[in-house]
Design brief:
- This protein folds into two domains: about 170 residues, Rossmann fold (3-Layer(aba) Sandwich), CATH 3.40.50; about 180 residues, Dehydroquinate synthase-like - alpha domain (Dehydroquinate synthase-like, alpha domain), CATH 1.20.1090.10.
- Helix content is about 50%, strand content about 15%.
- It is built from 14 helices and ten strands.
- The strands form three sheets. It has a six-stranded parallel sheet, with helices on both faces. Strands 5-6 form a two-stranded antiparallel ribbon. A two-stranded antiparallel sheet has the order 8-9.
- Helix 7 packs parallel to helix 12.
- The longest helix is centred in the middle third of the chain and has 23 residues.
C-alpha cells in the first residue's frame, strides 16, 4: 500500500525550549492568549521578559471549552485593539489554543457573528485576514499545537462549531515540558487520557496509515506506562517529558486521520452532561475498542501490537487502566440510561467524526 503523511508545523520539543520564542518571533509584534492563572504562575511575566516591547496585547481570561458567549467580546476587542499584530501566541491547554485559532481568523467586518455564520455553513472558506499562530501547550494531551482544528461551543443553543482552515495550522509548536510542571493531578489525568483517545482513535480510523500508526502505537505504550506514575509523582521532570512527548506523538497521529467515534460521543456528553473533554472522550474507549475489533484486518493487526490477540483481555486491560485513574467507564456512571446511550452511539456514528470510525461502515 502507499500512504501520505503531512504535517506543516515546525515543532520544537525539549525542556526549556520556550526560550526559542524570542528568536522565532524576531522583529514581530506578538499578542498572547493564555489562561487566567498564567500571571500568578509567573508565565505572563516570563513571556514579557522574552519578548519585551514586542508583546503588545494579552488575552488572559480564556475559559474551558471556548463558548460563543465569551468569545464574541474577546474576538471583537482583539481585532479592534490588536489587529495590527504579526503573531498570536497561544500558551495554555486546548482551550487557550482553540481560542487563539478562532481569534486569528479575521472577518471583513471584524464581527464574530460573521465568523459564526461562515462556520455554520460547514464549508471551507477563505478568511478576510489571518494571523500567524504559535502554540505552546501547558498540558500534555490536547494535540492542538500540531493540528488545525478548534472547537467552538454554544452551550446556550447546545451546538458546537468546528473550525478548520489552512491558516489554523500553527506555524510553530513549542512543546516545553517545563511548562507542565504545575499542572494538578486531575488535569494531568484528563489531558493524558485525551492524548490516549487521540492515539486510539487514529488507529480505528478509515484514514489510518502506517506512519500515523507508528506515532499512535508509541504514544499508547508510553501513556499506559507513564500516566499512572506521573499521577503519583507530579513534579518528576522525566515523567513530565515522557508524557509531553507521548501527547505530541498522539497529536501527530490524529493530525492526519482526525478523530473517530469516541470523540463523536464525547461532544454529546460535554454539551448535555457537562463532562470535561478528556473524560468524555476516554470513558468509552473500552466499548469502542470492542466495536472496532474485527472490522479491518490491518487495523486489528495494529491494535494487537498494543493489546495482544484476546479482545476480552484487551478491553479489561483498558477498563482497568481507566479505573486505576478513578475514571468510570459506563454510561450509567454519568446518568445516561441504556436507551439514551444506544441513541447517543447511533447519533454519533452519523457525525463527521463518527464516520471516520472503521465500524461505521457496518453500522
Amino acid at each position: 500500500m502507499t500512504a501520505r503523511f503531512h504535517n506543516p508545523v515546525d515543532t520544537r520539543f525539549g525542556w526549556g525550549c520556550l526560550q526559542d520564542l524570542a528568536s522565532i518571533t524576531a522583529h514581530q509584534t506578538v499578542a498572547l492568549v493564555t489562561f487566567p492563572e498564567a500571571r500568578a504562575l509567573g508565565l505572563v511575566q516570563r513571556i514579557q521578559a522574552l519578548l519585551g516591547e514586542r508583546l503588545v496585547y494579552v488575552v488572559e481570561d480564556v475559559q474551558p471549552n471556548p463558548d460563543v458567549a465569551q468569545l464574541r467580546g474577546t474576538y471583537e476587542r482583539f481585532w479592534q485593539q490588536a489587529g495590527s499584530c504579526d503573531v498570536v501566541l497561544a500558551v495554555g491547554g486546548g482551550s487557550a489554543i482553540d481560542t487563539a485559532k478562532a481569534l486569528i481568523v479575521g472577518t471583513e467586518s471584524g464581527q464574530f457573528d460573521e465568523l459564526l455564520a461562515l462556520l455554520a455553513t460547514g464549508q471551507p472558506f477563505e478568511p478576510a485576514h489571518c494571523k500567524t499562530l504559535i502554540a505552546a501547550p501547558t498540558t500534555a494531551g490536547t494535540g492542538s499545537e500540531v493540528t488545525p482544528w478548534a472547537t467552538i461551543w454554544d452551550s446556550a443553543s447546545h451546538k458546537k462549531y468546528s473550525l478548520h482552515l489552512d491558516c489554523t495550522w500553527p506555524k510553530v509548536a513549542i512543546v516545553d515540558p517545563q511548562l507542565m510542571l504545575t499542572v494538578p493531578a486531575g488535569v494531568t489525568v484528563s489531558t493524558g487520557l485525551d492524548a490516549l483517545s487521540h492515539a486510539l482513535e487514529s488507529i480505528w480510523n478509515i484514514n489510518a496509515n502506517p506512519v500515523s500508526d507508528t506515532f499512535a502505537v508509541s504514544a499508547i505504550e508510553d501513556i499506559l506506562e507513564c500516566l499512572p506514575q506521573l499521577r503519583r509523582d507530579l513534579g518528576n521532570p522525566e515523567l513530565r517529558s515522557r508524557m509531553a512527548l507521548a501527547a505530541l506523538k498522539a497529536g501527530l497521529a490524529f493530525s492526519n486521520t482526525k478523530t473517530a467515534l469516541a470523540h463523536s460521543i464525547s461532544y454529546e456528553m460535554t454539551l448535555h452532561h457537562g463532562l470535561p473533554h478528556g473524560i468524555a472522550c476516554s470513558f468509552t474507549l473500552p466499548l469502542v475498542l470492542g466495536l472496532a475489533w474485527g472490522h479491518d484486518a490491518a487495523r486489528d493487526h495494529t491494535l494487537r501490537r498494543v493489546f495482544g490477540d484476546d479482545l476480552d483481555k484487551a478491553q479489561t486491560q483498558l477498563r482497568n487502566f481507566l479505573h486505576s485513574l478513578d475514571v468510570k467507564t459506563e454510561f450509567a456512571d454519568y446518568g445516561v440510561t441504556p436507551t439514551e446511550a444506544d441513541a447517543m452511539i447511533r447519533f454519533a456514528l452519523q457525525g463527521a467524526r463518527g464516520k471516520n470510525f472503521i465500524g461505521s461502515r457496518a453500522a
